[in-house]
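Weekly structure sync, notes
Attendees: PL, DS, HV (note-taker this week)

Item 1: Biotin transporter
DS walked through the input record. Source organism listed as Clostridium tagluense. Sequence as pasted into the shared doc:
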Amino acid sequence: MKNTRNLILVAMFAALTAIGAFIKVPIPYVPFTLQYLFCALAGIILGSRLGALSQIVYVAIGLCGVPVFTEGGGISYIFKPTFGYLIGFIVAAYVIGKIRENVVELTFLKTIFTLLLGLFFIYLFGVVYLYISYNLYLGKNISFYFAFFYGFVVCIAGDLILTIFAAYISMKLIPVLKKSGYIE
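Item 1 (cont.): predicted structure, written out as tokens:
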């Protein structure tokens, strides 16, 4: 029963992340989406192992050709400049979940700091991959400042709002899900 519940939760958060890819605000180079919201909620609600697994499932489905990413899908998506953010989702969900597992009492501020640490890894992988992809195989020489500006500075305000929203939602959801026996 527990394994079935975990499989359903992992699949649900993979699907929510896919849906989040299609709720987007087009800005240059890196569109603003709701993927981070569902990645963060996966980590904070499911924990490190299952949260990361939900994001691995999401990325694997996209790489198999199902168009669940912001700009489609398929194995060639690894050559998109924004693929690093997808790698960051996996790491972020794991980090967020790991911190939550080790925090005795989860408060609103602790949740925000936990989510911000996960967001750090999304941007770390995203900006570095953006820089490398443009310079190595897209043949466009860009500075690291350019990648940092368009991959972080332009996007961070929306993700900070999502961080506060995700912290608020998780503070409401976690006690209910624990009481209902859906999470530990």
